[in-house]
Amino acid sequence: MLALAVVGVPSWLAVQLAGAAAPAAGEDAVPVLASAAVRAGTAMEAALSAAEPLDAAVQQLRDSVDETVEKALHSGPPADIDLSWWQARYPDIIGYVYCPGTPISYPIAYDGNNEYYLHHDLDGNYSEYGTIFLDARAPRDFSAQCNMLYGHHMKDRTMFASIDGYKEQWYYDAHPCLYVYTNAGTYRVDLFAGLIVPGEHEVFNTSFQTVDLERFISQSTFYAGRGIPTGRIVGLCTCSYEADNYRYVVLGEMTLIAEG
Question: What is the domain range of residue 186?
Answer without folding.
Answer: 83-259
